[in-house]
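Morning. Coffee machine broken again, so started the prediction first thing and wrote up yesterday's gels while waiting. Chain of 146 residues, entered below exactly as on the submission form.
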Amino acid sequence: MVYKSDKNLPQKSNSKKLVFLAGSLSIDKIDNWRNTLVNSYSTNFDFIDPTNDNYVLLNTSQMEKHINWELEGLELSDIIFMNLLPESKSPISMVELGLYAKSNKLIICCPEIFYQYRYIKTIAKKYNAALFTELEKGIQHLKKET
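Came back before lunch.
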Protein backbone atom coordinates (compact mmCIF):
# COMPACT_ATOMS: atom_id res chain seq x y z
CA MET A 1 0.00 0.00 0.00
CA VAL A 2 1.17 3.52 -0.79
CA TYR A 3 -0.10 6.42 1.30
CA LYS A 4 0.00 9.81 -0.40
CA SER A 5 -0.92 13.13 1.14
CA ASP A 6 -4.46 12.93 -0.23
CA LYS A 7 -5.04 9.86 2.01
CA ASN A 8 -5.08 9.52 5.77
CA LEU A 9 -1.99 7.98 7.26
CA PRO A 10 -2.41 4.41 8.51
CA GLN A 11 -2.66 3.28 12.08
CA LYS A 12 0.51 1.64 13.33
CA SER A 13 0.37 -2.10 12.62
CA ASN A 14 2.68 -5.03 13.07
CA SER A 15 2.00 -6.55 9.66
CA LYS A 16 4.36 -4.52 7.45
CA LYS A 17 6.99 -1.93 8.20
CA LEU A 18 6.21 1.60 7.03
CA VAL A 19 8.80 3.25 4.81
CA PHE A 20 8.75 7.03 4.35
CA LEU A 21 10.09 7.99 0.91
CA ALA A 22 12.20 11.09 1.50
CA GLY A 23 14.60 12.78 -0.87
CA SER A 24 14.81 14.40 -4.25
CA LEU A 25 11.91 14.37 -6.66
CA SER A 26 12.55 12.74 -10.00
CA ILE A 27 11.95 15.22 -12.81
CA ASP A 28 11.71 12.33 -15.26
CA LYS A 29 8.38 10.66 -14.49
CA ILE A 30 9.39 7.61 -16.54
CA ASP A 31 12.46 6.83 -14.42
CA ASN A 32 11.06 7.65 -10.97
CA TRP A 33 13.07 6.09 -8.13
CA ARG A 34 10.05 6.15 -5.80
CA ASN A 35 7.87 4.18 -8.22
CA THR A 36 10.68 1.69 -8.82
CA LEU A 37 11.08 1.11 -5.09
CA VAL A 38 7.34 0.77 -4.45
CA ASN A 39 6.81 -1.57 -7.41
CA SER A 40 9.70 -3.79 -6.34
CA TYR A 41 8.88 -4.05 -2.63
CA SER A 42 5.15 -3.44 -2.13
CA THR A 43 4.72 -6.99 -0.82
CA ASN A 44 7.38 -6.37 1.85
CA PHE A 45 6.56 -2.84 3.01
CA ASP A 46 3.88 -0.17 3.07
CA PHE A 47 5.07 3.22 1.84
CA ILE A 48 4.40 6.83 2.75
CA ASP A 49 5.05 8.96 -0.33
CA PRO A 50 4.85 12.72 0.27
CA THR A 51 4.98 13.54 -3.44
CA ASN A 52 2.18 15.93 -4.37
CA ASP A 53 1.92 16.66 -8.09
CA ASN A 54 -0.03 19.86 -7.34
CA TYR A 55 2.50 21.15 -4.81
CA VAL A 56 2.91 24.58 -6.40
CA LEU A 57 -0.86 25.10 -6.54
CA LEU A 58 -1.48 24.56 -2.82
CA ASN A 59 -2.78 27.57 -0.92
CA THR A 60 -1.43 28.43 2.53
CA SER A 61 -3.79 26.22 4.53
CA GLN A 62 -3.42 23.31 2.09
CA MET A 63 0.37 23.64 2.30
CA GLU A 64 0.27 23.65 6.09
CA LYS A 65 -1.91 20.51 6.03
CA HIS A 66 0.52 18.84 3.61
CA ILE A 67 3.56 19.74 5.73
CA ASN A 68 1.89 18.42 8.89
CA TRP A 69 0.95 15.22 7.04
CA GLU A 70 4.63 14.80 6.08
CA LEU A 71 5.82 15.41 9.64
CA GLU A 72 3.31 12.88 11.00
CA GLY A 73 4.39 10.40 8.32
CA LEU A 74 8.04 10.78 9.30
CA GLU A 75 7.16 10.16 12.95
CA LEU A 76 4.97 7.16 12.15
CA SER A 77 7.44 5.47 9.80
CA ASP A 78 9.69 2.60 10.82
CA ILE A 79 12.24 3.48 8.13
CA ILE A 80 13.03 6.74 6.34
CA PHE A 81 14.50 5.95 2.92
CA MET A 82 16.17 9.11 1.62
CA ASN A 83 17.48 9.26 -1.93
CA LEU A 84 19.32 12.41 -3.01
CA LEU A 85 19.75 12.91 -6.74
CA PRO A 86 23.11 14.30 -7.94
CA GLU A 87 21.75 17.47 -9.57
CA SER A 88 19.28 18.39 -6.83
CA LYS A 89 19.53 20.76 -3.87
CA SER A 90 16.70 19.10 -1.89
CA PRO A 91 16.30 21.67 0.91
CA ILE A 92 13.31 19.91 2.49
CA SER A 93 15.28 16.67 2.56
CA MET A 94 18.10 18.46 4.36
CA VAL A 95 15.61 19.54 7.03
CA GLU A 96 14.31 15.97 7.32
CA LEU A 97 17.87 14.68 7.62
CA GLY A 98 18.51 17.09 10.48
CA LEU A 99 15.29 16.13 12.24
CA TYR A 100 15.93 12.37 12.03
CA ALA A 101 19.72 11.99 12.03
CA LYS A 102 19.64 10.49 15.54
CA SER A 103 16.54 8.34 14.99
CA ASN A 104 18.15 5.10 13.73
CA LYS A 105 15.45 5.13 11.01
CA LEU A 106 17.50 6.57 8.15
CA ILE A 107 18.77 4.83 5.05
CA ILE A 108 20.49 7.51 2.97
CA CYS A 109 21.45 7.21 -0.70
CA CYS A 110 23.67 10.10 -1.70
CA PRO A 111 26.15 10.13 -4.60
CA GLU A 112 29.57 11.59 -3.89
CA ILE A 113 28.93 14.35 -6.45
CA PHE A 114 25.96 15.68 -4.44
CA TYR A 115 26.85 19.23 -3.41
CA GLN A 116 26.63 18.48 0.33
CA TYR A 117 27.92 14.89 0.30
CA ARG A 118 30.75 15.51 2.79
CA TYR A 119 28.33 17.09 5.24
CA ILE A 120 25.88 14.20 4.90
CA LYS A 121 28.68 11.64 5.22
CA THR A 122 29.85 13.26 8.46
CA ILE A 123 26.32 13.29 9.92
CA ALA A 124 25.75 9.66 8.91
CA LYS A 125 29.02 8.61 10.50
CA LYS A 126 28.39 10.54 13.73
CA TYR A 127 24.87 9.19 14.20
CA ASN A 128 25.42 5.73 12.70
CA ALA A 129 22.95 6.18 9.82
CA ALA A 130 23.22 3.85 6.84
CA LEU A 131 24.78 5.74 3.91
CA PHE A 132 25.18 4.46 0.36
CA THR A 133 26.56 6.25 -2.69
CA GLU A 134 24.40 4.16 -5.05
CA LEU A 135 20.62 3.80 -4.96
CA GLU A 136 20.77 0.07 -5.70
CA LYS A 137 22.94 -0.58 -2.63
CA GLY A 138 20.52 1.38 -0.46
CA ILE A 139 17.64 -0.68 -1.85
CA GLN A 140 19.53 -3.90 -1.08
CA HIS A 141 20.00 -2.68 2.50
CA LEU A 142 16.27 -1.87 2.75
CA LYS A 143 15.41 -5.38 1.57
CA LYS A 144 17.29 -6.77 4.59
CA GLU A 145 14.96 -4.81 6.89
CA THR A 146 11.98 -7.12 6.20
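The chain has one domain: 2-143. Going to sketch it on the whiteboard this afternoon.
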